[in-house]
Amino acid sequence: MLILAIDTALDACAAAVLDTSTSQIVAQESQPMKRGHAEALMPLIARVMKASGVAFTALDRIAVTTGPGSFTGLRVGLSAARGIGLAANRPVVGLTTLTAYAAPVVAQNAAQPVISAIDARHDHVYFQVVSGDGGSLVRARVAPIEEALDAARFGAPHLVGNAAQILGQRWPADAEPPFRVDQQPAPDITWVAWLGAAVSPDAAPARPYYLRAPDAKPSQDALQRAAPPSS
Predict the structure, then answer these.
(1) 12-19 and 92-95: which strand pairing?
(2) Where on the phi/psi map is residue 89: left (φ > 0), alpha (ψ -120 to 50), or beta?
(3) What is the pLDDT, as a whole number, of residue 18?
(4) 18-46 pLDDT, tens per residue?
(5) Which of 84, 72, 70 shows the shortest CA–CA distance to 15?
(6) CA of 151: how far to CAs of 36, 69, 137, 145, 160, in Å?
(7) For residue 145, what are the CA distances in angstroms to 108, 117, 119, 160?
(8) Is it the case that residue 214 has pLDDT exceeding 50?
(9) Helix/strand/coil (H/E/C) assignment for every residue in the chain
(10) pLDDT tens figures, 62-91
């Protein structure tokens, strides 16, 4: 299969083309950025596709990260993936950022549990815990950091994600220390591609994976202006 992978969920704008027949990433590009994904993504995809020598119509599917992450960034990546899928008449699959973070560690089939963690601000994290072989130990959720630290009961973990250092710095002193703290601003786009090849389109919809509502809320004045006039 030929897979176009796209990630704009966190602090990167990235794309890659994977050829599963050769087990090779034939082209990729990743730019660190906290904002500006909307302007950067389509030119970046164009460069990656040109470097790959693959036509959009030759793709077998498009894979995109679905969150948790920046609400604006997620919409940019999902809109691009859906648009390309529609134009090329190809399926689009969605992968969570937490799973993408864990994938390269799970692929090593290590003995340690894996905690994927993303900064949710306000002393909270998005996190999930899987065993070394990928089995679920704690399902994805948003919770106070102290709740995430309860995962110390599973043993010395491999911490990965953009909140890995946050958990590592606050790890309980009476618990076995983390096996590794792997701070990453965004998942590796190559693993987004491999996950995209592995999942079923029916089981991996390309829609936002929100674990909580957006922080931004309409002001009371805006709500009053939008309200229908009283009769």
Answers:
(1) unpaired
(2) left
(3) 98
(4) 999 999 999 999 999 999 999 999 999 99
(5) 84
(6) 35, 22, 9, 11, 14
(7) 27, 10, 9, 15
(8) yes
(9) CEEEEEECCCCEEEEEEEECCCCEEEEEEEEECCCCHHHHHHHHHHHHHHHHCCCHHHCCEEEEECCCCCHHHHHHHHHHHHHHHHHHCCCEEEECHHHHHHHHHHCCCCCCCEEEEEEEECCEEEEEEECCCCCEEEEEEEEEHHHHHHHHHHCCCEEEECCHHHHHHCCCCCCCCCCEEEECCCCCHHHHHHHHHHCCCCCCCCCCCCCCCCCCCCCHHHHHHHCCCCC
(10) 999 999 999 999 999 999 999 999 999 999
Beta bridge partners of residue 129, listed in sequence order: 115, 138
Provide φ and ψ at 157, rounded to 5°: -95, 165
The residue assigned the tokens 């309409």 is 218
Residue 224 has pLDDT above 90, yes or no: no
What tokens appear for 116 in the block?
């994927």
- With CA atoms as reference, report the closest residue to 128 among 109, 107, 147, 111: 147
Residue 6 · residue 15 · CB < 8 Å = yes
Task: Report the distance separating Cα 138 and Cα 158, nearest Å.
Answer: 14
**Average pLDDT estimate for 127-141:** 96
Query: pTM for the complete prediction?
Result: 0.89
Structure tokens belonging to residue 173: 């002193």
